[in-house]
Amino acid sequence: MIIMHFSGKDRDIGEGERLARRPPTRAALRIGFALWALQLLALGQQQIAPEDQVKAAYLFNFAKLAEWPQTALPDGPSPLVIGVSGGDQDFLDLLKAVVAEKVIGTHPLLVKSLSSGDDMKSCHIVFFRASERRRSHAAIAGLAQAGVLLVGEDKSFLRQGGMINLVLERGNIRFEVNPDALDRSGIHFSSKILAMAKAGYESSAAAVSNSPAGAARQLAHGVPPEYPAIAERMNLSGTAQVQVLVKADGTVKEVKVLGGHPLLTDALARAVRLWRYQPGPKETVEIVKFSFGPP
Hints:
CATH class of the largest domain: Alpha Beta
Number of domains: 2
Number of strands: 13
Order of helices and strands: HHHEHEEHEHEEEHHEEHEEHEE
Shape: globular
Distance between the termini: 31 Å
CATH architecture of the largest domain: 3-Layer(aba) Sandwich
Strand order of the largest sheet: 2-3-1-4-5-6-7
Helix content: 25-40%
Strand content: 15-25%
Oligomer: single chain
Number of helices: 10
């Protein structure tokens, strides 16, 4: 529960303060409220709700905060379509209830169930349920540059080219982002939204670094490593640790295994080689740890 307090005290104010108190525009209020709602979700404030209800709320907020290219969502009264691929009717009904009678800008929201790739091209958001793992890979390939926001809930979704993935972590639902896939689609979110995304890696607090003041380099793009299928069958879990030599331009020059089961360290090393860090004045050495376990 959030309690807001307002003061009822009256006092004289000057013209400058009176101007500063002008009500914000409707657009500013809409974006501000959507950001506030998304922050609540990301912080787990609404995790008392069922998992599907939280995911439906995320989809609604993504719709409010995304900026589509004009070719995908031109000005006018055309609907903003959220498609759901897979899952059951209960989730579809829940999502319809969440967006009922909602309008974003000039666009009413419409939810529909998807049964083919052609249906997806008419959507602005497509949510792939976990049951659609096999089908989603081919669908993503055909939608990567179609101005469609691709959201999933499967551990391999971002590696397949998905844009946003909803993940369950310690009982709370977070979201992680593939910035490269978003860039290719032409869909944009503010930096504040992207900063709220869950990092798919864990940097050691004791990282060895040659960067200024010994601070670790910030990761610009990094997709979490895939949990090896053979490790999953073996019910193998544990932490892998690697040392990463990062060039000045942010690309990874070399990866050295420091510790962990060979299956897990190999998966982490393969993923880290594709990571990209923020540019810096010179090469640095970073330590990356990642904990693997059954989903």
